[in-house]
Amino acid sequence: MSQLARFPEGFLWGGAVAANQLEGAYQEDGKGLSTADVSPNGIMSSPDFSMETFNLYHEGIDFYHTYKEDIALFAEMGFKAFRLSIAWTRIYPNGDEQTPNEKGLAFYDRVIDELLKYDIEPVVTISHYEMPLELVKKYGGWKNRKLVAFYECYAKTLFERYHKKVTYWMTFNEINVSLHAPFTGSGLLFEDGERNEQDIYQSIHHLFLASALAVKAGHAINPNLQIGCMIASMITYPYTSKPEDMFKALQQDRHTLMFSDVQSRGYYPTYVKNYLEEQNITVQMEDGDDHILREGTVDYIGFSYYMSFVATTDPEHLKDQTGGNLLLGVKNPYLKATEWGWQIDPVGLRTVCNQLYDRYQKPLFIVENGMGAVDKLEDDGLINDDYRIDYLRAHIEQMKLAVGDGVDLIGYTSWGPIDLVSASTAELKKRYGYIYVDRDSEGKGSNKRYKKKSFDWYKNVIATNGEVLD
Questions:
Q1: CA–CA distance from 34 to each of 58, 133, 373 (Å)?
Q2: Phi/psi at 204 (nearest 5 deg)?
Q3: Strand 449-451 and strand 435-437: pairing?
Q4: 3-state secondary structure of 428
Q5: Cα dihedral 272/278/281/287 (nearest 10)
Q6: CA 39 to CA 246: how far, in whole Å?
Q7: Contacts of 208 (CB under 8 A, 6+ apart)
Q8: pLDDT tier at 137, thresholds 50, 70, 90
């Protein structure tokens, strides 16, 4: 391995979570209902507004009350950074209030202060797979331009409150989820089996504007803030060397890259404009929107990476599908898969890092990566998750090679350092953490925390700045 393949001093090792997947206390201290609170079967399912269906998001792992103990465990592992999200509905319960909820702001003050006590850098996602439900019911979600101002107000409130404590921010988690799960990403409601592409792309435009205005507002409050975008990155390979497969892979990647293109460069690429015209989609833009996008470009590219995908023009190959983050894909015959069908491709992470850095020449931040698996708590309290260690080791090795390639990498916050509710399936048996939570998908269990074998392994990785991976 090249001598250049070393993580820089100050590399931000840590873990990442989302408020709606671990906090619980879903109506405590003035919190309003969010889109996650009515999504009992995960982000890809239809919402249940009756609230009668059991929803594990309501309880999470009770981080709202256990954050001190959990953060102490992160500190024991040596975390340099912790990526968390702020629940919009704790700050503005309905989304359109004039005054924020002080109890919600005070909760995140306590969490952030607890992180800083251990010299753990908070990395804050402003909106992560949740938004106030009232903004859906009253305004129709992000297709309504009024939400841009509501979000800008919310973001300014956070920047004004926490700008002296938090340097790293992200505007929207996996913003490209709006294409695949419109209710989760944009608060859009469609009848089962239906999609309104006009509403989806109009919503995406409003998300872009909101992100840009937030970046501008944050920099005005504190020029030292580092505000990034965050995409679900899914590199696509052609199934064969057939030129048509190669172009299909290019097109498939563009459905992801358009989001980082607009937020990083500040304008719509020609290929997006062409696609909208071909699909007879007219995005309503106001005078000055172009200027807003140009003024609000992000400082870095945050992204998740779990798997790669394959593109093919052969109908026979299309039949062989496998699971994945947000959507199904064509199975790659050269890769193994997790229990949920997510194909494991560490080399793809190096490829993604190079693809994004070549494209933007901006720092990258890997803010999600990990392996969901069914872990077994043994009678002696041990959890032997060697499969997770193998997965993470292979990906970190490829990250190191990407650094050797010349990629400017800020940090790595693996997904779910403590077991939490799965976003895609709303269950707890799909575990990612270094810390086991004794709680099942029916909400039963002691909620006690146990260290997995991977806990000490990751602790050593951090202590050696990624030099020792055995």
A1: 10, 5, 27
A2: -60, -40
A3: antiparallel
A4: coil
A5: 50
A6: 37
A7: 262, 263, 293
A8: very high
- The sign of the dihedral angle between the CA atoms of 111, 112, 116, 118 is positive
Residue range(s) defining the domain that contains residue 33: 12-463
DSSP label at 332? P
Residue 271 has pLDDT above 60, yes or no: yes
Backbone angles phi, psi at 415, to 5 degrees: -75, 135
Among residues 31, 143, 25, which one has the least CA distance to residue 97?
A: 31
Distance CA 29, CA 23 (A): 13
Structure tokens at 14: 């840590």
Question: In the chain, what are the helix, strand and coil shares in percent, each to the nearest 5?
Answer: 40, 15, 45
Helices assigned H by DSSP within 177-288: 177-180, 182-186, 197-221, 243-265, 270-278
Tally of structural domains, the chain: 1
Locate 9 and state its tokens: 């001093």
Q: Is 470 domain-assigned?
A: no
CATH of residue 80: 3.20.20.80
Catalytic residues: 368
- Domain assignment of residue 344, yes or no: yes
Which phi and psi angles does 365 have, rounded to 5°? -135, 110
User: To the nearest whole number, what is the mean pLDDT of the chain?
Assistant: 95
| pLDDT, position 197 | 96
Q: Which amino acid is at 355?
A: Q
Rounded distance, CA 12 to CA 122, Å? 10
73, 456 contact by CB (below 8 A): no
What's the CA gap between 349 and 355, in Å, rounded? 10
CB 172 within 8 A of CB 142: no
Structural domain contains residue 468: no
* pLDDT greater than 70 at residue 175: yes
Asked if the structure places residue 3 within a domain, the reply is no
The Cβ of residue 80 has, within 10 Å, a number of other Cβ atoms equal to 18
For the record, the structure tokens of 171 come out as 């505007």
- Whether 220 and 292 have beta carbons less than 8 Å apart is answered as no
SS3 135: helix
The phi and psi torsions of 179 (rounded to 5 degrees) equal -75, -30
> Residue 318: pLDDT above 80?
no
Q: What are the tokens at 352?
A: 């993604």
